[in-house]
């Protein structure tokens, strides 16, 4: 059916849909009574069909869901609040409670937590039972990635890092747009008043993607000792499972294959370039940036590649027509101010998967 048919069937229900939306945004009578007997004036906007409770009861119910948003009746309207504003404390390693060994002057600490539903200001209660358990370890075990490992004042949930990673791969969404959306989820009227943790988010999201590659590749458990010795040591890349590889996915006697069938053991590789993947130099470039993958992924090792480029002589690409200068001018305009003029990669010819350590940046036009 065409879109017009579907829309014509849906249009008569618009009033019903809007009524349901308004009903969800307008909770019951704010003068209701909580099961504990107190005035019920607070409800959770994220729990399934949440009724009204008093602030104390809703805090108790959310000991294990501390990053939900709630709304509380202030006499004129339901005001959005974080649970920390109602007294919720995120206790670590004590089932949500406060450690009994915590000193009175360091029982709690303030922390900015970035989650999939926005940016929260929370109160954290660290565990002080075991002196050798670092604060950062407690955060990580609770699913919170600290923004810094010296004196963390902010953290990112594992859920938000995973969510951004999927969005970046599937929809090509930038980290800036994703983080700005989180600020609007926090306060869509005045998003500029929400705490800005974009710089920290960029750094942690990059580390998260690398650590996930280490985890999935099996390198954290030294998987190389189980793989053929001809593989790149410490490789984090996903190899093509269909391409023939001696000692991995081929029969031990594959060399005895008849001549007329040896083509089934042939590995095909294609090389191609993409000059749309350019990068211009800017003020944000860091000459001392740390390379995480170090030639263990799809790109070659940077230092070795730079040494190789020094051995390649320079050559200008010129048009064969002495009167036609458009080609030369077009190349100069296309690659102006570019520190990377494109990418060249080698892929599996049969299954279109990138080969490990077989991709390089270009810095000399289309050369």
UniProtKB/TrEMBL annotation:
<dbReference type="InterPro" id="IPR041457">
    <property type="entry name" value="CxC2_KDZ-assoc"/>
</dbReference>
<dbReference type="Pfam" id="PF18803">
    <property type="entry name" value="CxC2"/>
</dbReference>
<feature type="domain" description="CxC2-like cysteine cluster KDZ transposase-associated">
    <location>
        <begin position="83"/>
        <end position="189"/>
    </location>
</feature>
<dbReference type="InterPro" id="IPR040521">
    <property type="entry name" value="KDZ"/>
</dbReference>
<dbReference type="Pfam" id="PF18758">
    <property type="entry name" value="KDZ"/>
</dbReference>
<protein>
    <recommendedName>
        <fullName>CxC2-like cysteine cluster KDZ transposase-associated domain-containing protein</fullName>
    </recommendedName>
</protein>
<feature type="region of interest" description="Disordered">
    <location>
        <begin position="268"/>
        <end position="287"/>
    </location>
</feature>
